[in-house]
Every structure is written in structure tokens, then in C-alpha cells.
């Protein structure tokens, strides 16, 4: 049997948040008919105990195959659906959010819908992004200049519905035909950049990513920190994404600019940036799960 929405979640040691997410789903769906599939990537806390005690979701046990791998498996385990609702376990949806997102998804050419997201304190979470470029490699969001800032900070940009290059993937509604046409998320990223890649490939295929302020959600992890390891993964995946889309010459420039950016941040006291510099310059220091081999410039 088919449903309106296939709700898909990937958990990994998510005991603190997953109940709040799943509790928010029924009111968020409104009259939409949905399935809920949670893929657990090998949690060692109480996540599976919490999930097994519920009767409102299908739980799939997995080894840690990464975020993209978990999402693709969750979609494969879901019934046919008009749309796929991608959710982080540390998110929670507002009542009626899904029908509002479905309305936007029905607009011609729209393949992905991103809602207005709040931080845990109720403040705006700036989830909208511009496509990566050489000028934006430094993450100079404070300039608020599009040529240098990938993250969109201007609150006015969050007041109206419009197309964006991509949006943070904590809460995304994706047209099922779009997801299938793209072959799902690229599992080679393991963690980080998979949502960037999905939106940019969707745009290549003629599907837009559209932001709507009419649907809301909270992302508790939106302002959370990251470890040195996850920071390294984020930097490496940004480089390989840019190289794949821009070619080896521009990819090499992006790589060396990234090295310079991390050195600068390290000099100013950001300790995990020195870990990133070592991983950038010494391939053996990189996380094995990314499968990057011994090439200096990630592919």
C-alpha cells in the first residue's frame, strides 16, 4: 500500500531526542497518511530500547553505514510514497508542518522543500545556504556578502518563500520521483555534505530546492558543537564535493585554500583546526569511513 509521506529517520546514540521527534510526527502530518521508518546505525546507548517500546515506527537495525547509507536504507524499507520526509532525530516538527510542505512540493519543478527552523531557544536557525565556490571557502558568513558567505544570515531571507541552492538537511521533504532519479543520497560522503550534494544534483536535473516560512520545526542540534573528527570529515567532504563538481584544477585550489583557512583558524585558537590541517596534509590521518585512500586531494 502506498502512503502520502514516507518519514525516514537515522539514529545513532539518539536516546535524548528521538522520542520528542516521533511524538511530534502525528500532529505534524495532519490528514496526510504516512509510514515511519527508523534505521539505527549501531547505537550503544538506550536508543534501541526506546524505539522498540514504541508501536508507531518500523525499526531497522544496522551497522554504522553513515547518514546517507542509513537514509537510503530507510527509504528502501518504506512503502511507495508521494514524498520522503528526511528527519534528524534531534528535530521536532510543528503541528501541520507536513501538509504545508506538501503544498509547496506540488509547485512546478520543486523537488525538495525546506521549512523554517528554530533553535532550541526559539531563535531562528540560519539553515539556508549558497552553493560552494572558491570565494566562499573561508566561511566568511559575518561579511553577509554573497560572494564570500555560504551561510545565509539575513533574517529577511527567511520571511518569504523562494528557491535556494541548498538547505541544512535536518528536515527536508523530497519528491519521491526526484529522490529515485538521483539514486538517493551519495553514500560515499558517510556524514556531512550529502544534503548539499543531493540539492545540487537535483538542480542539475531540473528540480529546485524551495524554502517555505509557512512550515516550522525545531532543530535541537542546530547550534551544537562538533568533535575534531567530525570537523575533519566536514572539511574533507566539502573539498571532495567541490572537486567532483568543478574538476581537478579548481578542486586543487579549493583544497589549498581550505588548508590556509584551517591554519588561520588554528592560529586564532581553534584547536580542532590543527587536527584538520594534519588530516588534510597527511592522508593516513583521515577517517577510514570516508574511503579516501592515499590521495592528497580528496575525490
Automatic annotation (TrEMBL):
One of its GO terms (molecular function) is glycosyltransferase activity. It is an enzyme of class 2 (transferase). InterPro entries: Glyco_trans_2-like, Nucleotide-diphossugar_trans. It comes from the Bacteria. Pfam families: Glycos_transf_2 (PF00535). Keywords: Glycosyltransferase, Transferase. Its EC number is 2.4.-.-. Residues 7-127 form the Glycosyltransferase 2-like domain. This is Glycosyltransferase family 2 protein.
Amino acid at each position: 500500500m502506498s502512503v502520502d509521506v514516507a518519514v525516514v529517520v537515522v539514529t545513532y546514540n539518539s536516546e535524548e531526542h528521538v522520542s520528542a521527534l516521533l511524538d511530534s510526527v502525528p500532529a505534524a502530518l495532519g490528514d496526510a497518511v504516512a509510514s515511519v521508518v527508523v534505521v539505527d546505525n549501531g547505537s550503544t546507548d538506550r536508543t534501541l530500547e526506546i524505539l522498540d517500546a514504541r508501536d508507531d515506527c518500523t525499526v531497522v537495525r544496522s551497522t554504522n553505514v553513515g547518514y546517507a547509507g542509513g537514509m537510503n536504507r530507510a527509504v528502501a524499507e518504506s512503502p511507495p510514497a508521494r514524498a520522503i520526509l528526511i528527519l534528524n532525530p534531534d528535530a521536532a516538527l510543528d503541528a501541520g508542518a507536513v501538509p504545508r510542505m506538501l503544498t509547496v512540493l506540488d509547485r512546478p519543478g520543486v523537488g525538495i522543500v525546506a521549512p523554517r527552523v528554530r533553535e532550541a531557544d526559539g531563535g531562528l536557525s540560519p539553515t539556508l545556504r549558497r552553493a560552494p565556490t572558491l570565494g566562499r571557502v573561508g566561511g566568511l558568513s559575518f561579511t553577509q556578502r554573497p560572494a564570500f558567505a555560504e551561510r545565509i544570515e539575513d533574517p529577511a531571507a527567511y520571511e518569504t518563500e523562494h528557491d535556494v541552492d541548498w538547505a541544512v538537511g535536518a528536515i527536508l521533504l523530497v519528491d519521491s520521483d526526484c529522490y529515485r532519479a538521483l539514486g538517493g543520497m551519495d553514500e560515499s560522503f558517510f556524514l556531512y555534505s550529502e544534503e548539499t550534494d543531493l540539492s545540487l544534483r537535483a538542480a542539475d536535473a531540473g528540480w529546485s530546492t524551495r524554502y517555505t516560512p509557512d512550515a516550522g520545526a525545531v532543530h535541537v542540534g542546530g547550534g551544537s558543537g562538533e568533535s575534531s573528527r567530525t570537523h575533519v570529515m566536514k572539511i574533507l567532504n566539502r573539498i571532495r564535493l567541490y572537486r567532483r563538481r568543478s574538476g581537478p584544477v579548481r578542486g586543487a585550489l579549493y583544497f589549498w585554500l581550505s588548508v590556509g583557512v584551517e591554519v588561520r583558524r588554528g592560529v586564532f585558537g581553534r584547536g580542532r583546526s590543527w587536527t584538520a590541517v594534519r588530516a588534510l596534509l597527511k592522508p593516513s590521518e583521515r577517517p577510514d569511513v570516508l574511503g579516501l585512500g592515499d590521495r592528497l586531494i580528496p575525490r
